[in-house]
Amino acid sequence: MNITIKQLTAFVAVAESQSFAEACDRIHLSQPALSITIKNLEEILGGSLLTRSTRTLALTPEGQAFLPVAQRLLADWGHALTDISNLFSLKRGKLTIASMPFFAGSILPTILSEYQSKYPNINIRIHDVVNEAVIEETRSGRVELGVCFDPGENDDIQFTALFREEFIAVLPAEHQLANQLNREHVEWIDLFQYPFLTLLQPASLQEYIKETAKGLDVQFSPHIETHQLSTIGRMVSLGLGVGTVPKACAQQMQEMGAVCRPLVNPSLTRQVGLIHRRRYALSSAATAMKDIMINHFSENQ
Fold first, then answer.
1. pLDDT tier at 242 (50, 70, 90 boundaries)?
2. Can you list the alpha helix ranges (DSSP code H) found in the chain?
3. 9, 186, 266, 275: which has the fewest Cβ within 10 Å?
4. Residue 52, beta-bridge partner list
């Protein structure tokens, strides 16, 4: 049974106005076209909806029963169109993002502020999880966008580079590497001489540290491992050891009482960017967020 919106609209217009002439003006159809539309609807339904004479127009009992149904269907159709239009125009919607904690806690709030000023009715959910979890949550579709280190070539993940992040040393305030005169940086070979605090595996940060130690022919064994960079900062500030964190965390580390220094020989940097699934179209809300992030970093380079 293929009833069209045009047929429902025509029937409701005639039924509510009780006049073909008024209905024609209301829905901008000629009287012959309106008559044919009503006739086709009646043929589909299997009987008359209207009784007509030269002077009167009235609903049959079946027409009276069908009128509220037709009105409800048109209302639902109108609401559905409005809902879709609002999603496309970003007047409402939701967006879920996964982000590495250092980005979520230092850079993302500024981006979210700009996004919310433009699209205040979009509800946003942030999953601040380790790099590997960002990739997995994006790949599985639990989030639309992820912010992570470059995952390399993937058939199912699209990566868009945003910026390169440098890793820095974090030291207790009284540590000798923090207080040596005329020393503005710290060398990895020196940092490895002290108890080292790092993230638990499978966090990629520990893998980067191990690769660096291997390149320097140093045996690396973490002294304390934890899930959060903020925990590392707090423990370093209390003198429990040294560590390395993304440069974006420097202010947070300093607020907790740790000292930050550039790391050299070698310098450790990693590309950070946005990921999303290749074979799935982004929502309007996610597309707008992607554009804002790309513009943010292109303007701040």
1. very high
2. 5-17, 20-27, 31-45, 61-88, 101-106, 108-118, 131-140, 176-179, 188-191, 204-215, 229-237, 250-255, 284-299
3. 266
4. 57
